[in-house]
Amino acid sequence: MSVIDFRSDTVTTPTAKMRTAMAEAPVGDDVYGDDPTVNQLQDLAADLLGFEAALFTPSGTQGNLIAIMAHCQRGDEYIVGQNAHTYKFEGGGAAIVGSIQPQPIMEGENGILPLHDIESVIKPFDPHFAQTRLLSLENTHSGRILPQDYIASATALARKHGLSCHLDGARIYNAAVKQSLNVKEITQHFDSVSVCLSKGLAAPVGSVIAGTTEFINTARRWRKVVGGGMRQAGILAAAGIIALTEQVDRLADDHENARYLADELSKLDAFSVDITQVQTNMVFAHLHQGSTKELAAYLKQHDILISQSNPIRFVTHKDVDNQSVDKLIKHIKPYLLSA
Predict the structure, then answer these.
(1) What is the DSSP track for 7-26?
(2) N or C: which end of the chain has fewer CB within 10 A?
(3) Mean pLDDT (10-residue bins), the chain, 339 residues
């Protein structure tokens, strides 16, 4: 029996077409720039995202790290959300590896960094301070979408103060699909963007970062420094091409399934769900009866995997459908009766 996994959209399995493309991909040495499939992916990503150039990276964490390092020098600073992935969940890489100081500020609704708070932490040019160089935003943030008018205002404020702007767009296509936007309408406000191919887009490995040719040339050097220079990487890039060309529109199904999951969980007295916050493919549900650890262990016995945090983060993706949701609810009910 196959396992149903609600822990993350990183657990997606590649499609049959991806597997075939990977097996048949023309390859070369990408460190030399000779892998034709990697080059095709990078050209495609740059074009779709509206930038001059793009770079294939092994992971979103590495893509964000080298983007920050390409924008900043040692001793510089970047402004970021207190709960942003680049600050909280990437091992402190910018500080540890890049010697770049994060300046975290608390997010407001939908992951918004209040404009006043951004402006208040920008450092004056003074030898006592790290020099503020970069504003880093995240879209989506915990499944929630940054409003377009906010993005325009925040990036305009940053540029007014001479800052570059980077977008952690790991799930940017979820934001674009939900708003019926061309992704370029989001990325146009940024100097660089990172996009995960291995989440909802279902490729097995990899991310891309995009920016100007000069920026990508610098990022390529940092990718090599941090160990991300791969060789015959076209085998992986082939799946990324299909992810960008065939898996984007399908994200709407994930959003519908997340809303269905939220509706079904809200019918259970043991859960509270703020359905207004279910915007893309994530549902956060507080459990008020029993424990999430016990519930996770119980569901695992029935081939269903969930996170143990409270609220529980449920994530929908291509390998989860309405029938998966129905099975989840079916097995939650007897646990609640015994909790």
Answers:
(1) S-GGGPPPPHHHHHHHHH--
(2) N
(3) 92 97 98 97 98 98 98 97 96 96 93 96 95 97 97 98 98 98 98 98 98 98 96 98 98 98 96 95 96 96 96 97 96 91
Amino acid at 210: A
Would you state the pLDDT for residue 1? 54
What Å distances lie between residue 192 and 78, 141, 216, 265, CA to CA?
Answer: 14, 17, 9, 38
Q: The tokens of 21 are what?
A: 């493309």
Determine the pLDDT at residue 42. Answer: 98
3-state secondary structure of 321: coil
Helix/strand/coil percent split, the chain, to 5: 45, 15, 35
Q: Give 39-48 contacts, CB < 8 A, sequence gap 24+.
A: 40/237, 40/241, 41/208, 41/237, 41/238, 41/240, 41/241, 41/244, 42/208, 44/241, 44/244, 44/245, 45/195, 45/208, 45/210, 45/240, 45/244, 46/210, 48/183, 48/184, 48/244
Q: Is 97 in contact with 80 (CB distance < 8 Å)? A: no
Residues 6+ apart with CB under 8 A from 194: 57, 60, 63, 64, 67, 166, 167, 168, 169, 170, 207, 208, 209
pLDDT of residue 109: 82
Is this model's pTM higher than 0.90 or not?
yes
Q: Indicate the helix (H) or strand (E) that contains 255.
A: helix 251-266
Q: How many helices (H) and strands (E) does the chain have?
A: 14, 12
126 burial level (CB within 10 Å; 0-12, 13-18, 19+)? exposed
